[in-house]
């Protein structure tokens, strides 16, 4: 790891400057501009407009912007511009730019995004992730590559096999930077960073950056520009959020109610455990929903198939652990349900950020059981906002929330009563342009009659059980 004395960031906030109207003035390579046009990307998002000119000029960046606001292109486009300017192939087994991401699916998505931006450009882009053949990946790296997108564990395996060297690496990108700096990845990251020359450009991007990570981030950066489009940790603007108090035993029926109210609209359901995800997916399937699951105990083939069928709109519900919380971009996702609240508070913002991407609308409902009140408080503290209550009753021993009748649904709390409310869920289902590519199979949906007692509440909270249909 390259340790440097912490230095003050140059703070450049979007609000101070006029937004740029197109990509032409940002210093990007002309062939990238052409590809952006072909992809239908005409106007840079704020994080792109603010980051790209600095990165093109070679500055280190700490970029913080809400979920779904185009951070991939914000680091990808200027980095590709600089790499295209080299004009010669990398030497065998070397990597010019290394992008690290926390999950295989996110690494693959970044790979596909960069490959689309760099279509027909003389740039070799590779990806190495766990769950696939080491030999095949080693072969791919033999010729050297311009950009390598990797999960840290697999990259270390390949380094140990001497399939790849980082001695000529000039760019290091940490996507989901706060997670990469956290306990699960920091040891691997330290090992990898030590192998990269100190003279490099480092780009850190995320939607959240807890204070501790922020301090650690500085040791990886050299005289960085800090670009903070919105306060770090703020949820995406267009998500209608709501919290529904319930009990653990009632959550499945409640979820079935919510999903039934939005036929054909894609929903991600987050569950804390792998076993819980499987159990819930099976139950929903039994109740007639079109559902698939993704978590760390599935084989890579199963993970890829689950995501592909969900992306294609062939299944309506994806039940997932936090393996799907960060970075995944499936524009048609209209709803996120936090079946269990996350135990890492920042992950709430990432989980709900799977909807309302690139300016779309989306809804996020969190089910909060009596044992989860402290998780809820931690989430609200991390976001600096209260989540409006849209249904259910708080457990008498569960916490300090007022009873539903007196809740400040959608209203601003009085001064000194805690953080401001997040955007409340609307009475009607949120307008969304989410259209599954293929309409999911609509079978009988919902739990058998009497199996679950749906909680009563305001907003979009289900008010009565779905019409029960026995058998399947
Ligand atoms: N300039 C743009 N105009 C319109 N859409 C864009 C633009 N840039 C990126 N997008 C689209 O926005 C979506 C979100 O982009 P991306 O995945 O990079 O977001 P992100 O900020 O990295 O989100 P997260 O924090 O969840 O990782 C993608 O579908 C992408 O194609
Ligand atoms: Mg991202």
UniProtKB/TrEMBL annotation:
PROSITE patterns: HELICASE_ATP_BIND_1, HELICASE_CTER, Q_MOTIF. Residues 238-398 form the Helicase C-terminal domain. The keyword DNA repair does not apply. One of its GO terms (cellular component) is cytosol. Residues 52-227 form the Helicase ATP-binding domain. Residues 21-49 form the DEAD-box RNA helicase Q domain. It comes from the Bacteria. A motif (Q motif) lies at residues 21-49. Keywords: ATP-binding, Helicase, Hydrolase, Nucleotide-binding. Residues 441-452 have a biased composition (Basic residues). GO terms for molecular function: ATP binding; hydrolase activity; nucleic acid binding; RNA helicase activity. Signal peptide: none annotated. InterPro entries: DEAD/DEAH_box_helicase_dom, DEAD/DEAH_RhlB, DEAD_box_RNA_helicase, Helicase_ATP-bd, Helicase_C-like, P-loop_NTPase, RNA_helicase_DEAD_Q_motif. Residues 391-472 are annotated as: Disordered. Pfam families: DEAD, Helicase_C. Belongs to the DEAD box helicase family. PANTHER family: ATP-DEPENDENT RNA HELICASE RHLE, ATP-DEPENDENT RNA HELICASE RHLE-RELATED. This is ATP-dependent RNA helicase RhlE. It comes from Rhodobacter aestuarii. The lineage of its organism: Bacteria, Pseudomonadati, Pseudomonadota, Alphaproteobacteria, Rhodobacterales.
């Amino acid at each position: 790891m390259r340790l440097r004395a912490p230095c003050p960031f140059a703070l450049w906030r979007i609000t101070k400057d006029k937004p740029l109207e197109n990509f032409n003035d940002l210093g990007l390579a002309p062939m990238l501009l052409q590809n952006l046009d072909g992809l239908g990307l005409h106007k840079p998002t704020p994080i792109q407009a603010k980051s790209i000119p600095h990165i093109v000029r070679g500055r280190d960046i700490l970029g913080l912007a809400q979920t779904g606001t185009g951070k991939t292109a914000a680091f990808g486009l200027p980095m590709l511009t600089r790499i295209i300017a080299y004009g010669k192939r990398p030497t065998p087994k070397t990597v010019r730019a290394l992008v690290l991401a926390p999950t295989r699916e996110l690494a693959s998505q970044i790979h596909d995004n960069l490959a689309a931006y760099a279509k027909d450009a003389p740039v070799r882009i590779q990806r190495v992730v766990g769950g696939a053949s080491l030999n095949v990946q080693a072969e791919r790296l033999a010729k050297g590559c311009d950009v390598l997108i990797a999960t840290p564990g697999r990259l270390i395996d390949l380094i140990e096999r001497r399939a790849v060297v980082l001695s000529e690496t000039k760019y290091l990108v940490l996507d989901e930077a706060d997670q990469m700096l956290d306990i699960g990845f920091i040891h691997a990251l330290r090992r990898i960073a030590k192998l990269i020359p100190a003279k490099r450009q480092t780009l850190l991007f995320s939607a959240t950056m807890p204070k501790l990570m922020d301090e650690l981030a500085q040791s990886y950066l050299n005289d960085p520009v800090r670009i903070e489009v919105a306060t770090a940790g703020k949820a995406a603007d267009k998500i209608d959020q709501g919290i529904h108090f319930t009990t653990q035993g009632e959550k499945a029926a409640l979820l079935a109610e919510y999903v039934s109210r939005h036929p054909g609209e894609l929903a991600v359901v987050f569950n804390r455990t792998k076993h819980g995800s499987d159990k819930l997916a099976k139950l929903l399937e039994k109740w007639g929903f079109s559902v698939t699951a993704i978590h760390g105990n599935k084989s890579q083939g199963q993970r890829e198939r689950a995501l592909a069928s969900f992306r294609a709109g062939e299944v309506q519900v994806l039940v997932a652990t936090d393996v799907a919380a960060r970075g995944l971009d499936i524009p048609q996702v209209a709803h996120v349900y936090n079946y269990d609240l996350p135990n890492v508070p920042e992950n709430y913002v990432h989980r709900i950020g799977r909807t309302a991407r690139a300016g779309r609308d989306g809804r996020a409902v969190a089910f909060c059981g009596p044992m989860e009140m402290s998780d809820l408080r931690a989430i609200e503290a991390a976001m600096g906002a209260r989540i409006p209550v849209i249904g259910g009753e708080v457990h008498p021993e569960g916490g300090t929330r007022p009873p539903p009748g007196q809740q400040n649904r959608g209203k601003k709390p009085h001064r000194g009563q805690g953080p401001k409310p997040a955007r409340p869920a609307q009475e009607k289902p949120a307008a969304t342009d989410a259209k599954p590519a293929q309409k999911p199979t609509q079978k009988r949906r919902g739990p058998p009659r009497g199996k679950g007692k749906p909680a009563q509440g305001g907003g979009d909270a289900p008010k009565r059980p779905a019409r029960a249909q026995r058998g399947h």
